[in-house]
Amino acid sequence: MPFTSEMLEEMNVLVKFTLSTDMAGIKVHSDADPILVAATERLYEKKLVTAKDGGYLTSIGRDAVEHAKEALRILRSEPQ
Question: Residue 55 and residue 27: Cα distance in Å, rounded?
């Protein structure tokens, strides 16, 4: 199954989180790009973040960010 545009939008929100501390979250303001607002709300509905406007990562959200960042790293790497 290929990624949908909504999944890509959600992944783009997830990779904005830092994994260096659990005390850093994000805040998506209501006047932000509507695509970003909607993606963040979907992540909240999926219980990956603690608030509709971002907040902090949940445990499963942290796992998702780790995997998203690793996939991004792999896809950006230069061919051997």
Answer: 6
Residue-wise pLDDT tens for the chain (80 aa)?
A: 899 999 999 999 999 998 887 788 889 998 999 999 999 999 999 999 999 999 999 999 999 999 999 999 999 986 65
CB atoms within 10 A of CB 73: 9
Q: Is the pTM of this model over 0.85?
A: yes
**Burial level of 22, CB count in 10 A (0-12/13-18/19+)?**
exposed
Q: What is the gyration radius of the CA atoms in the chain, in angstroms?
A: 13
